[in-house]
Amino acid sequence: MTADARRIAFTSKTLHHVDLERAAVGALEARDFRLAFALADRRCRILPHPGARAHLLRAEALFHLDLRDAAIAGVARALELEPDDLVAARRMMAWGDDLQQIEAARSVTRRDDDPDSVRAALLLLEQSGQDSCARIDFLDEEVKGWVTWRGPGDPHLSLAQADQSSTIQLPADPRHRFARDGRQAASFRLIRPASATSQRLQITQADRVIASVQLPANRVPDHRAAPRRPARLRNGEPSPLTIIIPVYGDLAATRACIDSALNALACTPGSTIVVVDDASPEPDIKRLLNELAAEFRIRLLTNEHNLGFVGAVNRALGETGAGDVVLLNSDTIVPKYALQRLRSAVQSTPRVGTATPLSNNGEYTSFPIPNRSNPLPAAGEIELLGELAGRANSGIAIDIPNGIGFCLYITRECLDAVRELSDDFYRGYLEDVDFCLRAAEAGFRNVCIPSVFVGHEGSRSFLGEKRSLVMRNLRVLEHRYRRYATDCAAFLLADPLRDCRAALELKLLASQQVAAGPSVILCGSSAGRAIAIRRCRQLTAEDQHGLVVQIRSEGQRQLATVFDPDGGAPQSIALDVATPEDREALLRFLADLGIRSLEIAEPNRIPGACLAQLTQHFAYDLLITDTALAMRAAVGSGVHPDWTSLVAEARRVTAIDDDGAAFSEAVLGLQVVRLSDPPVPPALYPEVSGPARLGLLVLHTSAAEFRFIRALSDQLADADEDIEIVVLGSTLDDLKLMQRTNVIVTGDIAVDDVATLIEGHGITKLVLDIGEPAFGHPLVEALLATGLPIAATEWSPTPPGRGRSTDLKLQPGFDADATIAAVRDWAVEDVLLQPDRRSGRHRRQVGTRLP
Q1: How far apart, in whole angstroms, are the C-alpha atoms of residue 833 and residue 843?
Q2: How far is the C-alpha of 128 from the C-alpha of 118, rounded, in Å?
Q3: For the sheet containing 407-410, what is the strand order?
Q4: Which end of the chain has the least Cβ crowding within 10 Å, N or C?
Q5: Is 349 exposed, middle or buried (0-12, 13-18, 19+ CB in 10 A)?
Q6: 760-774 tens-digit pLDDT
Q7: Phi and psi based region of residue 237 (left: phi greater than 0; alpha: psi -120 to 50; beta: remaining)
Q8: Whether 434 contacts 418, CB under 8 Å
Q9: CA 240 – CA 174 distance, rounded (Å)
């Protein structure tokens, strides 16, 4: 790709992601795999969120750069996003390890129309011990596919539905394209009978099941004879409430769910439990359900054939004549008063069609981190969370785009209007969303009741297929409801449940009795946040607990967000410390926590009034993370007068890394406590041929960083040196820099990305400090651990024997012009570096510094 073509490709901000993908394809075709990696890798780091195609382009480049593990990881990510992507499946079948290959081979046999690919997949499956396979494609009118097997006897295909069943034999076809090397095969095609319920298609051979698939209904059910809406009950008598629990597998989870529901039932007058045994294959589950039914503790419905979640629920709904219902997954834990509180909240809220409680694993309603599968708490903690949610959020109902089926309360009025779950959604994913969106179209509200908490383990079945099924059904859903994706995005952005989560967090933290409170690290930037999280990791290693308070500006507001880096509570507390009321609230919150210590990083980024109140009320440490406390970033300049009292009144001054400690002693004149991590041995990277590639770390998205990169790019271009700058991170204007022929900007990176970025870009040297150091930042430490030559500020003289001749030592007191000149000369010097396998360092072979 020419320089002019590349410059033209990166001029549109709105189409930048498209331009990157197109340019990556061109680079692959030109066999410029480093450029292809650089372009595809950037695409995978920017918005809009990348799809499978972008990750596959990146993986293709990595594979050609002999970075096989990283390439396989990229294909795995593509399959997570698009499980039905055949290109990704073929790549995984060729590149992956045994388990990855087998799963990819199964995907290829289910979807690929290329005979050679399918034959390769069948061979892989046979080598793993699977000597039979089938593909089934279905429409409303017909079912077709093929089956392969070994051994005597032809397979049989059966199609069963509620009132009838038929079976046909599939004789072997010796001319079939997959009948090779002793493998037999047959194709089939049959007309589907019309059915208002799901159908079960099964292929068996010699008493074994080769394939079993539930087909959705292909005829709309007739509701003309639907029962009339029952009359409302009077005299304050509670309306009936039916809890429907479909059951298939997992005895332990099923038992725990039903036990918890029975406890809740005792506190919910007028309620009953209907359990649907959806043809469970586990005898212990059948025994448990039969015992509970014999004791009249549950009402048991038994399906002769497995109908799936939708079929099981619809059967139960059809046999429920009055009152509201709750659809409850068999892997949930219901607190004692959850059902009573849920019913009361719904009955006191107008126009509710469906209601969903908070949960550890409830998508929109997840707690403490929304839209994440948080770990299932212990039974006692679930009960506590239910009690605290009732206190924290009583009387509140928050509208959400759709309810979530793990625990979905449905009013009788909504059921009468919307009827039953749709059978259009294969294998029971997103049918709950479809029901809720139909309810919204009928004028009902879908709400979250944050005064109720229900534990949810999450799906344990279909682990390999779930993403594929969800994506397939999601496409149906988005086609049917055009505004759904937009409504979800708007809800996630606004996060109207945040205050409810925060209220529950405050109650939860107040209820916890601990011998020693957490340490709190206070910061004021994204770089400071990363250092604060690292400090919390150090505290965890010392059997202590850390919380981070980050203050950031949002217009006129100064929001102090409090979060636990380990994913526990709190995650949603946010206070506007620009106001006296919230400053006092922050003080009370920290005092109530009984914090062990307060460590202040970046005091220059903390609002003055807030900093003054915190330091008056709490003993504190100063954590040196940058040069802001100095008069000037020069040796011996001392502490700036604005910070002398802050430093003097601190219990101690600390630093996470050696550079922070050296800066404190050399510039501030302070003796500090070094908070050390275990040493990390340097990584070893293979020799890189070709021109030097300079990795330049940016952490602050500042004007100084942008000007430095632009000036260095100009000087390298003027020197006519074929050296590329790889900017590690994001800048004020990535696109402007990407228009330069010698600059690539990665976009935001994480510590886990470092090894792949170094090898993928072929980086030979690193610039870690361009005037705005971040002492103790995890990315700085990760890059230091690569063992590559570095350019960084030397805050104190290096002891004899410890310096490396390959490093560039920048002088304290940052001077942009002098630093740019020094980095330019260091970058272009004639040095070839190879890893010394004995020491883990690099040695100079040839080289002289250019004048």
Answers
A1: 6
A2: 15
A3: 299-302, 271-277, 241-247, 324-328, 407-410, 352-358, 445-453, 398-399
A4: C
A5: middle
A6: 999 999 999 888 899
A7: beta
A8: no
A9: 61
